[in-house]
Design brief:
30% of the residues lie in helices and 13% in strands. The chain has helices spanning 3-6, 12-15, 29-37, 43-57, 74-78, 122-130, 142-145, 177-185, 201-207, 241-249, and strands at residues 67-70, 90-94, 133-138, 155-156, 160-161, 190-195, 210-211, 233-238. Strands 1-3-2-6-8-7 form a six-stranded mixed beta sheet. A hairpin with a 3-residue loop joins strand 4 and strand 5 (160-161). Helix 8 (177-185) packs parallel to helix 9 (201-207).
Length: 250
């Protein structure tokens, strides 16, 4: 079954939010890279479409609340053009991953509001080196679901409750709820989530996307707000298995 057949929104509600018939917000990384290399698209245009879609749908429109903050520098980064496999293409990252830029890193908590890390997490360094465009930070279960034994999946004090684009009345699961919902609703072809125990796999399943928890230790955890040394890891959340592999390589 095709993804667009599967998602009940199907995109009946989403169709009206598509900015242009020439841009498919559900295109994967491979398709966008090929379109750029053929001269049919360029990183600046892709980034513009993604930011417009977030503005139209995240707190207005369907109010998905998947993105906690957009990166004001994203359009400038996109001007760098294409390089390598994923260079010039947009990505969102979970708000418990340090970025030394105009964005904050708060784990969704008001206690860290205003927090500006002094340096990028190692995985953010790799994304920047690859030329990818950091669109913004995604919402999450506050403190990656370690706020309380009674915490709500997909809710943070800073971002509110992330809604599931598959069925708006259902949970997007967590803790990487914003990353999963953002990919599912077409804000970006991929996002970075983090997992201790199901926090990538569960929201990916709930939102109908691909989520991969790498073997612990394969991906550096430097600059990621921790829960436990024994289980934590970051991983890719994408529309296709191929894209997950490409992003993991980066």
């Amino acid at each position: 079954m095709k993804r667009r057949t599967f998602i009940p929104l199907g995109m009946a509600a989403l169709a009206g939010c598509q900015q242009s018939t020439s841009f498919d917000p559900f295109a994967d990384y491979s398709s966008l890279a090929s379109a750029c290399d053929r001269g049919e698209l360029d990183p600046a245009r892709i980034t513009s479409h993604c930011l417009e879609r977030i503005e139209d749908m995240d707190h207005a429109g369907l109010a998905i609340r998947a993105v906690i903050e957009v990166n004001p520098d994203a359009p400038k980064i996109a001007e760098g053009g294409r390089k390598g496999t994923l260079g010039g293409l947009p990505i969102l990252v979970k708000d418990n991953i340090d970025t030394a830029d105009a964005m904050q890193t708060t784990a969704g908590s008001l206690a860290l509001l205003g927090s500006k890390p002094a340096r990028d997490a190692f995985i953010i360094q790799r994304l920047r080196q690859s030329g990818m465009v950091l669109l913004g930070k995604t919402n999450l279960s506050e403190w990656a679901n370690m706020r309380s034994p009674k915490s709500s999946s997909g809710w943070s004090a800073r971002g509110g409750l992330t809604r599931n684009p598959v069925l708006l009345t259902h949970s997007a699961s967590g803790s990487s709820s914003g990353s999963a919902a953002a990919v599912a609703v077409g804000y970006a072809p991929g996002a970075i989530g983090t997992e201790t125990n199901g926090s990538i796999i569960s929201p990916a399943s709930a939102c109908g996307i691909v989520g991969l928890k790498p073997t612990v230790g394969l991906v550096s955890r430097s600059g990621i707000i921790p829960i436990t040394h024994w289980q934590d890891t970051a991983g890719p959340m994408t529309r296709t298995v191929k894209d997950a592999a490409l992003l993991l390589n980066v």
